[in-house]
Write a structure and sequence with these properties.
By secondary structure, the chain is of the alpha/beta class. It has twelve helices and seven strands. It has two domains: 39 residues, no CATH class; 192 residues, 3-Layer(aba) Sandwich (Rossmann fold). The longest helix has 16 residues. It binds zinc ion (2 copies). One zinc ion (ZN) binds next to α2.
Length: 270
């Protein structure tokens, strides 16, 4: 009865798009208008062949396709890919899922992640397994769900071939603080020993795709990759729905754009 009343209510008073406030015409489980969703586009700028950060013309002309960060400190993952930049509508969707618990958004984000993972598949061989970045159990019970796991679960349903999803294999044994504003050394210290592999047999000799909602500096994903390789994974790729380009973050910091820095801080705090 209550559910019925809710439905009648939403017909009489359709809600507004949670991203642009335009009234929604159709009842949908995802409270976002089609225009906002259609405006979310994959990354088109030239990217680092390893970590996926944005490359600028000078780096493109002189380099080997890697960004300066990857040339200075090679990440533990072989390659990281993302669907789109962590801004605008995509950032809005991630926030709806993560901070407002609009769980059906995970299906939409999972679809985007699946298209990104599908690009990796030709080079991946058969022994594939997808591992979501775990939350610490205190964080998970506070939020009630792990957004990376929900997105990964939605993504495997949409992949062109069946791939195993292994949850609970990688665990976060230590809570970590936000990576934003920390130096490289501090970031590494912050995530060191944060993860461990609970069941080595699930990853031994296999190619692991570590999945998360957002990649910021890549330190967390690199640490996951290190632990997984130590446990016997043949190689590790990383795939995220969104990528906070590091060049953009630095620019925001330089211009004192507090809202942007705050958004990046929130993204990195899990
Ligand atoms: Zn909208
Ligand atoms: Zn790079």
């Amino acid at each position: 009865m209550q559910a019925l009343l809710r439905n009648v209510f939403s017909v009489l008073f359709p809600s507004d798009c949670r991203l642009c406030d335009t009234p929604l015409n159709n009842i949908s489980r995802i409270p976002v208008c089609p225009e906002c969703i259609a405006a979310i586009a994959p990354v088109r700028e030239p990217q680092c062949v390893v970590c996926g950060d944005r490359l600028f013309s000078a780096q493109l002309l002189m380099g080997d396709g890697r960004c300066q960060n990857c040339r200075d400190h090679e990440p533990e993952f072989a390659r990281a890919v993302s669907f789109g930049e962590y801004e605008g509508g995509l950032r809005g969707l991630v926030h709806l899922l993560k901070y407002q618990s609009v769980l059906p958004v995970a299906a939409l984000l999972g679809g985007m992640l699946a298209s990104t993972i599908a690009e990796l598949l030709p080079g991946c061989g058969d022994a594939l397994v997808i591992v979501p970045v775990p939350l610490h159990k205190s964080k998970r019970s506070e939020r009630g769900f792990n957004q990376a796991e929900l997105i990964a679960r939605a993504a495997v349903k949409r992949l062109p071939q069946p791939i195993e999803l292994a949850t609970g294999v990688l665990v976060r044994q230590r809570a970590t603080i936000s990576q934003v504003g920390l130096s490289r050394e501090e970031r590494i210290a912050n995530v060191s020993d944060a993860f461990r592999v609970r069941d080595r047999r699930r990853v031994q000799g296999r190619t692991v795709i570590v999945v998360d909602d957002v990649m910021t500096t890549g330190t967390t994903l690199s640490e996951c990759a290190r632990v997984l390789k130590q446990a016997g994974a043949e190689r590790v790729w990383a795939a995220t729905v969104a990528r906070a380009f590091q060049a953009a973050t630095r620019q925001a910091a330089n211009h004192g754009d507090e809202e942007e820095i705050e958004a990046v801080a929130v993204a990195a705090s899990v």
